Amino acid sequence: MVPLEAGSGPDNPPCPACGEPLFGWVGERRGLGGSVSRCESCGLGVVGEPGSAEEALRELDRLGAGGSAVRIANRASVAASLGGAGWAGLEPGARYLFTVDAVQRLVAARDQVVVKRRWVPGAGIAAMWQTVLNSVTFGRNVALGAMGGAEAVPAEQRWQRRIDALICVVLAIPAMAIAAPLELCGSAVGRGATISLRLQLL
Questions:
Q1: Could you read off the pLDDT of 132-166 as tens digits, one per residue?
Q2: Cα 175 to Cα 165: distance, rounded to the nearest angstrom
Q3: Relative to the CA of 7, which of 19, 20, 73, 201 has its CA 20 to 30 Å away?
Q4: How many angstroms separate the CA atoms of 51 and 43, rounded?
Q5: Strands 22-26 and 194-201
Q6: What's the N-to-C CA distance of the chain in angstroms?
């Protein structure tokens, strides 16, 4: 087996969470700040340049809104694996795409530990549902964006946006029939789409 370190180099900078090399995952897309890379060790996803652990921690803190709990769109989820470039977690402005493992490594640097993790059923199923819809629309996150649950990336052309609106109405229930069992299976193996983590100082 070839160690991950063998992939280190200018094209594969170190992961801000664990230091292992980052590898390409998703190419540039409208609404994102660059291509997306991922760490094969801790799973952290990074949009654009890798940045630093301090920057990643600041973004993680924003997800917690000042509390001891943070809610992440889980890049190690079944939804992210199935969705790829259509994963609902690839929202405009996203910079770091966290996993539970990446969060544990990042917060350890400031003497914190994850003391509890909890799947968030409603948000998780909604994220999987939107990921399924993203596979058949021109834009991304159109349905959740219309409901205020995510920031959408509308299609470029007006006719495409009209088709997307129709798709979201016609396929809403069939997509949910697919998404709910998939997300339930994902949560059962610890790969739910949305995870709440409670942090505590050592």
A1: 999 999 999 999 999 998 999 999 999 999 999 99
A2: 14
A3: 73
A4: 16
A5: unpaired
A6: 36
